[in-house]
Amino acid sequence: MIHIVIPVFNRKEFTRACLDSLNRQTNQDFKVIIVDDGSTDGTDEMLRIEYPEVDVLRGDGNLFWTAGVNLGIRHALKQGADKIMTMNNDVVVDERMIEQMYKWHAKKPEALIGALELDAENGKPIFGGERLNWISGSTQQILEIIPEPERRGLHAVTHLPGRGLFIPRAVFEKIGLFDEDRFPHYIADFDYTHTARRAGFELYVNYDAKILTYPEASGDRENRRNKSLKNYYKHLFDIKGGGNLRDFTRFTFKNCPKPYIPFYLANGYTRRLLGYLVK
Questions:
Q1: Which part of the chain is the Glycosyltransferase 2-like domain (predicted)?
Q2: Burial of residue 145 (number of CB atoms within 10 Å: 0-12, 13-18, 19+)
């Protein structure tokens, strides 16, 4: 079965909606592992009373995304899991999502597979994967080049986000877990999938497996809405900052082909320094 690892910190209503959507899946061949990193809003009690079937692991509030996910993955691997999915708690899963992941995993048994992301407010597709150009620092949005009638099945990408990310055990056996030392929160998923791709694994977005998200609910979006010098600093240097310069620099030196590093750094720094001000 698929072991689904979900790190959480507070926001119990998001967690409840996520788990309820999983309970409505047409294929119930999965196990949920929640990593609760010190929630103080009653998440622990809710999980114990309403979802006793869920495995709950606990942190002290200092795990952040990457260490939390790794804790859940280690737990799953010890249980003999051969299929793992990482998921954020602010996700509502389409009822056929697990069914469609199994379908395409059978055809691509060693591929990492992501999901098509829809806006939970209006149901419109908002993310269908990207292909990165190291020289320009730009990403080609797959949704922009695929006509709507062809938005089905698998589409190859260069990296994948961690929300609804299917990973076969063979990947962990070859490249290990997520890099929590270099990337404690953001970019860890992109780093991991780039690493997997270099190791020979294929990456796809599965347009038949859909998840619904709340883009405006992310901490970085909130930071951008309330612009200030303090928030600008957090955007660039905080562990949860969407433009974290340290993590971006580490990501570049670890993943970018050496001849393109100066171009990618220059473009990336410019986007991060100016993007906060204009968006």
A1: 4-130
A2: exposed
Phi, psi of 112 (to 5 degrees): -85, 135
Average pLDDT over residues 178-206: 97
| pLDDT tens-digit series, residues 89-138 | 999 999 999 999 999 999 999 999 999 999 999 999 999 999 999 988 88
**Please, are residues 244 and 276 in contact by the beta-carbon 8 Å criterion?**
no
Mean pLDDT of all residues in 16-45: 97
In 3D space, the residue among 106, 243, 100 whose CA is nearest the CA of residue 164 turns out to be 100
Distance CA 128, CA 124 (A): 11
For the chain, the average pLDDT equals 94
- φ, ψ at 187 (rounded to 5°): 75, -10
Count how many Cα atoms sit within 13 Å of the Cα of residue 125 in the half-sphere of its side chain.
20
pLDDT of amino acid 279: 62
Name the pTM for this structure: 0.93
**Cα(237)–Cα(253) distance, integer angstroms:** 18
